[in-house]
Write a structure and sequence with these properties.
This protein is of the alpha/beta class. It contains 15 helices and 14 strands. The protein is globular and about 60 Å long.
Amino acid sequence: MSVIFPKLKTPSNLDVEITTACNLKCRHCYNFWQHNEGEDPGKSVKMMSIEQADNLIEQIIENKIFHVVLTGGECMTNYKVLTHFMRELSAVNVSFSMNSNLMLATPEKMSELAELGLPHTLTSLNSYVPEINDKMVSQEGAFEKIVAGIKCAVDAGIRVSVNMIITQLNKTHVYKTGLLLAELGVTNMFTTRMVPSTSAGPELSKELQVSPDEEKKLILDEAIRVRDETGINIGSLIQYPVCFLKDVAKYRDYVGRGCPAGKKMLCINADGVTEACSHDHKDYGNVFTDGVKKCWENMMEWRDDSLIPPICLKCSWLKYCEGACRLYTKTPNGMDLLAEDPRSLPDTSMLESDYTEMVTEKEFIAPERLRWRKEDDFTLVNIRGARVFELDDKIADFLIKCQETSKIFTSDDFPGSKNELGRLLELWIVETTDGATLEPVSTRVTTLQHTEKKGS
């Protein structure tokens, strides 16, 4: 039995690569090393077909999967399958988002995707300096096309998050890039450390890696500066070790994301081969021959603590950190290369809050957007997109009934404590009838959003 990971019968979300084709060749991409110099990448391109998409959609319904990330390669190079997925998933109440470099975006296409129900897209812009961005993606003129694509998406009403992969080339560009993104109307800015492929080689690895000291001063501290000045949400797509961050209050935006690989998320390549993470290349089966459920079962090592270092299993911060990245290591079950001595960490009691006042004399509803899935010992609730939490069956059954009957309830009706109800309110699982409930900006440790460091 895992110390921290719930045993999901099937994944709660899928990362689906609908094509390996891409109009960029990013130096930091996990696919960069697949194309040899002089090789025609078209020979090795894989495109998921409509028939394969339909097969997968049937499995998504059968396995009660909540959310699908449509990605590539560049997913808009397989536009027919992209729109087919969106149309069919909308019809069965499965949410979706898109990962795209947005270079192929046009006002017409983004309006169509918005009409199909696309709420959010993740893209990349690695520097406010066009020449640096273009060098990192190996294409001149890419900066202008990406910026134009972001504008098209924002104008269509699609929320845009931008991932900025940090290397030696752009490590001093976080602040000015963040200001540009805020000006463009971007919702979230992720500054993500590089997880280089084992095929990168020493020279390219040297270009890609940033020192631990620079990681804080040039990246995290500058992103916080952007957040404070613009209000943009910040974070990282790869969990940092909490023992590296140390100052949990200061770096609250980088605590609590965890890693969904193999615990909540299954990655499916365009040919159906599965991986726990797009940076990993271990084959766990093919969904078109073995099925989603079997591939998920083959991935149990990601959920049974096999890949967690022994020292991390003893750490009180494990449930917020999950041992950090399992691929930014020397061995699969080794320490994250940024990890430090956990004995310097504060006690997790700093996260404890009294939510009683938040729920006193208020009325609540279980919103229609919530989706549910029964597991063996708990109920999984989906808040929106890929965000899921496990709930005690008794509380889940109460909220499901309230949702089905549109019942308004108070803390006196709730089958748990007032503190539990307040926590659900903060996580956006319940809402107040006066509409005062605020949506959380991410899955990070929300209790730290209001924690101020004395003297800061």
